[in-house]
Amino acid sequence: VKAFGADFAYTVDGGMEGELEYENFNAASAKIDIQGRNVHPGYAKDKMINAIEVACDLQRLLPACQRPEHTEGYEGFYHCVGLNGTVEKASVSYIIRDHDADKFEQKKVFMWACVDLLKKKYGDGVLTLTVKDQYFNMRKMVEPHPQVIDKALEAMERAGVKPLVRPIRGGTDGARLSFMGLPCPNLFTGGMNFHGKFEYCSLTTMRKAQQVILNLAQLWTE
Fold it and tell me: CA dist 9 to 29, 51, 68, 150, Å?
């Protein structure tokens, strides 16, 4: 960051025309390793612990209404991003997201509570949970510097772009940079359908983004 020689910056990593974002998710990853007990299924009663079933139990404990496909705006979620396993051994990976810091912490605590409950059902050695914070909401790092937002809004207006200020339902490099001392809102690019098979970018919107960047360079010199 010191090498940038800058007090403020912008990432250009947004979506539809006019997007200006300075709020993002607080983010954590959660990995659950499950040690099952495999025996012949014909003689499994009161002996077998199917690691796949344990993983399914965990998924059922997490609120279905807090999955990505059922949330929007400022609503956070638990997202199961990976499941691998056999009867003997399984692992499940989640990402945990919320804009609100308190709700974010509550989600992590609830994940621990779910795992603890399953430990009581299956035994202490069956589930091992690892939670790691990934990034945090940059809002508190950007809001004390309103000029960085105001200039972006003016740059859009000069380019004939209607600003669309809203939270990112994800994260950007700007979040990490903001917490490293470089407040860094995010600007639109014209990208759509991110992470999907039909991801694309509008050349027309890219040209608008280019003009906004040029306008910002001019505004910061005035």
Answer: 27, 47, 30, 13
